[in-house]
Each structure stands twice: as C-alpha cells, then as structure tokens.
Amino acid sequence: MQPYELTLAAAAEEIRTRRLSPVELVDSVLDRIARTEPSLQAYVTVTAERARESARAAERATAASAPASASHGPLHGIPVALKDLIDVAGLATTASSRVREAHPTADADSTVAARLAAAGTALVGKTHTHEFAYGLTTPQTSNAWDPDRVAGGSSGGSAVAVAAAAATFALGTDTGGSIRVPAALNGVVGLKPTYGLVPRHGVTSLSWSLDHVGPLTRTVEDAALVMSVLAGHDPRDPASLPTPSSVDYRPLPGADLRGVRVGVPRNYYFEHVDPDVELAVRGAVEQLRALGATLVDVEIPMTRYIQATQWGLMVPEATAYHERTLRSAPERYGADIRVLLEAGALMSAGDYLRAQRARTLMRRAWLRMLDEVDVVAAPTVPVTAVRADQEAVVWPDGTSESVSDAYVRLSAPADITGVPALSVPVGRDGAGMPIGMQLLGRPLGEATVLRVGHAYEESVPARGYAPVTTPAGPRGDAL
Fold first, then answer.
1. Rounded mean pLDDT of 320-328?
2. Active-site residues: which are they?
3. Class of domain 3-478
4. Overall pTM surpassing 0.85 (yes/no)
C-alpha cells in the first residue's frame, strides 16, 4: 500500500508510531496529485513546497518527542486541501472566478486554516469550487469515478481530491448542499456541521445566514478527527456559537446502535428519486436496523416551502455580497452566476423577510420532529452524477427539473434549519457511480450523527479510492 492510500486515521497512527514520516506521506500525495490532475482538475493551485516545509517541520517535531508519543494530535503531518474560498496567508483566494484574477494574496489565515496549521497539517493545495460557490456541479473539475460526469458542487474540487486519494482530507463549504452533494457523487464522506459550530472568519461568503464549513474525508472516523480541530467559538464570526473549543468527536469502536432511533421519512426525501438510489439508501437503513437501531416513520414538515425559502435567503444575500463587483465588472462573472446575481437585485425586502420567517417556522418544526428521533436517514441526492452536458433530470411521471435543482432539493433543508448532516457512501448505481445516504441530527448533535455513520461504515466492506487513470507525470513541485 502506498502512503497516499491511507485514511487520515491510519496515516496518523503510522506517523505516531514512526513507521511513516510526514515527508514520505506528503511526497506520496504530491506524486498522486501530479498523476491525477491531468484528468480531474481538482486543484486551482498545488502548494508543493509549502507542503514539504510543513512536513519537514512535523517530522522534526515527531523526532523530538518520545517514541509513540500522543503529544501531537492526529492531524500532525497530514496532507490537506482547502476549497479556494478559504483564506491562507500568502495565497490568493480565487473562488474559481475571473473576478479575482488580480486578487491580492490573503494577509492572514482564516480561522479554520489557522487551526489546521496549529494542528500540524501540510497544505497541499487549494481546490476548485463552482464560481463563488454558486452552483452544484463545479464544471472545471471531473468526477473522480468518471471524467465525463459532473463532480458535484460547489466543493467539487475538494471531494474529487479526497476520492482520488490526491488529498488525505479536505475542507469545503456548504450553503445548499455543497459539501454533501459532491461527497455523495464521488463516494466520500462529507459533514455539514451545525450552523455556527465551525467559524467562517476568512472564508468567502455565498450566503451569510446559510454558509457552513466542514470536512470531506474517506471515512466517518476521519471526519470526526477533523471536527475535533475545527469546532469552537471565534468572536470574529458573528454566527459562531459559544461552544467548548476542544471536543472529541471520535465515535467509540463497534457497530452497536441499540437505543438509537432512526427516522425514516415517509414524504419528500424518497419522492422523485432514482430507483438505484432509493434501493441503496433503504438497504443502508435496514442495515442500521440490523445493528440495533429502531426505525421510526417521520413526516418532514413544511416541504412545500423548502425551495422558496432556500432561494429567498440565498439569492439576495449573494447579490448583496457581490453588489460592488457586479456593477464594476459584470463581464467577469460566468453567465450562469451573473444571471443569479442580477436576479437577486430584483427581490424585494418583503420577499427576504418572508423567507427568514419561513426559515424560523421550519426550524421549529424540525426541532419538534427531531424530539422523536436521534437522526433522520435519507438520500443525499436523488440521482447520481449526471453527464457533464446534461442540463435537466426528467422523472417517469414527466416532471422535469434542472440538474442543480435536483441536487439541492434534498440537501437544502439542513442548511435552512442549521442542523448537522452527514453524507456516507452506501453503494453504487448500475453505471458504477457512488450513492450517498444522508444522516441529519439535532443541533450540536454531531457526535450522534457520526456515531450512526461510523457504525454503518464499520459493518460494510471497506471502500478504496476512485480508480483514476494516472498517466506518468511530473512530481508535485512541477505543477
């Protein structure tokens, strides 16, 4: 096994016991990037020398500690990729947009970048996003399992890098599903935390009242390890929750779910869903039952208002953020993004306030529903990764929706209500494309959501990484 193939937890153990050096791990991941990038285009920029410097510093720190010491955390020496909305001192934050072609480099780290650096990680690069995170496909990037299909978005680069083993883990952002959608489409784990649990200071905003930052990893255990570093209050983010700065989110070993109540939606989440997706997710739910969980039918509240509320919040907030550059350089935006931003200028204050009111009512209704169960299990997206030139999804009853509307439909409720949501791979469709199950929990219920996801993961065969065609290429520092 090559070092790049290791999960975060496995790599951390190898480094802790000195069977693997951080330098060897980083070099292996950089070589993997060099081989996968020609076909995938996950990265905006590869920071090879910066990563090697961090790895050398981690190696020196490891050498100075006692053998097998636990003085360094599990992220020590681990390669990470960051979605290019996240500020890193000395690097530009491009948001994958021509608007920022001449954007100056960041003066300081974002909160999450600073926390990862303090934990000893090695930044291997910044990953592509759908322009300014305003989309669900990330057109620059190819799906890790089939380059002719969409990566999902907007954190498509981060998900593809992790799926292709071109990063040990990555960070993304989620406003309407932008962590979970690409996680599901590329067969990796994606966690959207509770709103306000992970600070967003230094992260380019799409919609301030919906934006979240979270990890994309190969396993649920890895996501828990990252969350233990990311979570915690930062007064520079007005929405940051006054939570403890050090929480261990790692689930206990084993797959016992006795006493856990899993809500199974009887409406909304299984409507207009591909049969392969429904079969895989219902099979995974039955596996949770086999592990001891009690299944409870639940009614998803206020479903007719989900789409209107999501767009009613996101569109005007995004337009407000881009107001100045939309006036000064509209031609620099992609056509799809410019249309959305211009549409936001036409929305009234009354429409926005009604969306905020609907969100408040929806959140209250969801909290009442979650009083009856510990988590809700549902599909992450209704259909697997479509081909890059496909614009719409047509269902057997003749109903048609755009690809973006299809992908956001099942993920938006967790952003509107702010509850934690975890996407876990649960199989593949007839074309071999990954399928994800979404686990949604109570606010600050990450530990429970991760426990259920980890139990499922422990009970199914281990997954590898995407079998990307990797022609010989230059080493990472040549990129």
1. 96
2. 83, 154, 178
3. alpha beta
4. yes
